[in-house]
Design goal:
TIM Barrel, 8 strands, 45% helix, binds phosphoenolpyruvate
């Protein structure tokens, strides 16, 4: 049985006072939303990690970063933060290779793989984001693109390292657009990702790997998506900025876990 995980990606949103309100609502609603039954992670912008960490203290909500440097050692990398720094700042999670980073900041598969290794080296749990663009899907390249993203980042990892990785399947055409993959479409890709992982890491590792869905998840569609057998929770952007909505998404995941 895989424990579900719901992660909030705030992207470049938030200010201190709004964050305070959002976090205090999340902390007060977390237990009712199933924290503990599901893992709940919040990834605020890096400058607010310390504030958010303080407010999360004593709660079951964990802290994550949205990005990390591929460089492991300290040095002359202006503007970068290392995985060790995020670990030092109280993060236990980090998003790696989000499609916005791949598309807007030129993150190649090599860079993504290096970031993933840096995160694992520092003891962070990486959430590896993968997904195809609409053009790639329409050109019949979905399997090629997504499996290449998975293989290039994960195929050389040890079984132990792989057990710390969560994959998030996020079709690029569904991120922030209000479009979602149908539960069947998402399930098909999740099963394919699990099969690809099984090829290089064995069935056991593949069965244990948590694979989240991301792309316009909200309180209305969460349940039908999370009910799919290979979907182990969600990575949530826009809807994670509203406490009630995000808690309802966590609740949907926890209710499904209770049903088994
Ligand atoms: C994301 O940023 O990872 C995401 C899935 O965003 P949204 O939920 O807004 O589509």
């Amino acid at each position: 049985m895989r424990k579900a995980l719901v992660a909030a990606n705030w992207k470049m949103n938030g200010r201190r006072s709004a964050n305070e309100q959002l976090i205090s609502a999340l902390v007060s609603g977390a237990e009712q939303a199933g924290a503990g039954v599901v893992d709940i992670v919040v990834c605020p912008p890096a400058v607010y990690l310390a504030d958010v960490r303080q407010r999360l203290a004593g709660s079951l909500i964990e802290l994550g970063a949205q990005n990390v440097s591929s460089e492991k050692a300290d040095g002359a990398y202006t503007g970068e933060c290392s995985a060790q720094m995020f670990q030092d700042a109280g993060c236990s999670w980090v998003l790696i290779g989000h499609s916005e980073r791949r598309a807007r900041y030129g993150e190649t598969e090599e860079v993504v793989a290096a970031k993933l290794l840096a995160a694992l080296d520092a003891g962070l749990n990486p959430v590896l984001c993968v997904g195809e663009t609409l053009e790639q899907r329409q050109a019949g390249k979905l399997v090629e693109v997504v499996s290449s993203q998975v293989v290039s980042a994960l195929s050389t990892l040890s079984v132990d390292a792989l057990s710390k990785v969560v994959v998030a399947y996020e079709p690029v055409w569904a991120i922030g657009t209000g479009l979602t993959a149908s539960p069947d479409q998402a399930q098909e890709v999740h099963a394919m990702i699990r099969a690809v992982v099984a090829e290089f890491a064995g069935k056991d590792s593949a069965q244990k790997m948590r694979i989240l869905y991301g792309g316009s998840v909200n309180a209305t569609n969460a349940e039908s998506i999370f009910a799919q057998p290979d979907i182990d929770g969600g990575l949530v952007g826009g809807a994670s900025l509203k406490a009630e909505e995000f808690l309802a998404i966590c609740r949907a995941s926890a209710d499904l876990a209770a049903v088994g």
